[in-house]
Design a protein that fits this description.
This protein has about 300 residues and is mainly beta. The chain contains 3 helices and 25 strands. About 10% of the residues lie in helices and about 50% in strands.
Length: about 300
């Protein structure tokens, strides 16, 4: 019995270690950069500073601040998990990435948060992630509303494989209203307390799992056109976007208030190349994502 209990405790302890995000509350900094993260500061050898510590935190003593600056060229902030921007070893399958943020956008800028679980890792290209092996799970969240107080975000992870990953990547950056690069000076975010979690750890009333639904597109795979449907329990503003596998927005299908019920929309991908795309519906502070495959 003793050995059995010890073995179980070791497994639990190992799981807790694997589930942690290094320096998730951004308390540790060295030479102006958060420990365990690759920042836009390091991309420019700390000559252009867009990432800084702040004492305006959700918990603890510090959080991270990212701000678009003009020198006179515009530079946007980004953070990528891992000291070299190549993620961390990770062998679990979390259901969701959560954290707390404040956001002060200018000119319609957006705060984008991406989480990816990989087998075979990924590499860094500027402020983007390039898949080296296989993408196991993925989630993307775009925030465009101002948040003057710390606000909880929930980023669901969508899985395309039953395999376990070996690498985890997180990307946080400010992008523009229409493209990744049309951002504006003065936009900034505060970020704190990132955590991977399971849906079972979150209050059911908060996640609306039984009433807010995003269904798989049909047909899938598809050639040029497919139908996407979603269900909302109450009237509210809905934003439905499509992204490529690297997180670049390629289409906005819905951006308006919708009545409660099930809604359908046709997606025309005639102008897109073959590949995997992710569609995400945002509703009343929640989001859900699914993958679809375009073949031509």
């Amino acid at each position: 019995m003793f050995y059995r209990i010890t073995f179980i405790l070791v497994l639990i302890f190992q799981g807790l270690i694997l589930s942690q995000i290094p320096n998730n509350s951004f308390e540790e900094w060295v030479d102006g950069n958060p420990v365990g993260w690759f920042s836009s500061n390091r991309l420019f050898l700390n000559t252009i500073i867009t990432i800084t510590p702040t004492n305006i935190s959700n918990s603890g003593l510090k959080a991270v601040k990212g701000e678009v600056i003009q020198t006179p060229i515009l530079f946007a902030p980004f953070l990528i998990l891992g000291n070299e921007g190549t993620g961390i070893p990770y062998a679990q399958r979390p259901a969701m990435l959560t954290g707390y943020y404040q956001f002060f956008p200018q000119g319609g800028d957006r705060l984008q948060i991406l989480a990816g679980l990989f087998k075979g890792g990924f590499s860094l290209s500027g402020n983007s992630l390039l898949i080296k092996g296989k993408l196991i799970g993925y989630g993307i969240l775009n925030i465009n509303n101002e948040a003057r107080e710390y606000t909880l975000f929930r980023l669901p992870i969508v899985y395309s494989s039953n395999e376990n990953p070996d690498t985890c990547g997180i990307l946080v950056r400010i992008i523009g209203q229409s493209t990744d690069n049309d951002y504006h000076a003065g936009s900034y975010f505060l970020l704190d307390d990132l955590e991977f979690t399971n849906i079972s750890n979150i209050n059911e009333k908060e996640i609306l799992s039984n009433n807010f639904e995003l269904l798989q597109n049909y047909p899938n795979p598809f050639n040029s056109t497919t139908k996407i449907s979603y269900k909302i329990p109450e009237d509210g503003h809905v934003n439905l976007k499509v992204y490529d596998i690297l997180g670049k927005e390629v289409a906005t299908l819905v951006n308006e208030k919708k009545h409660a019920g099930t809604h359908f929309i046709n997606f025309d991908a005639t102008d897109l190349i073959s590949g995997v795309y992710i569609y995400t519906v945002y509703y009343n502070g929640y989001s859900k994502s699914k993958k679809m495959l375009l073949t031509k």
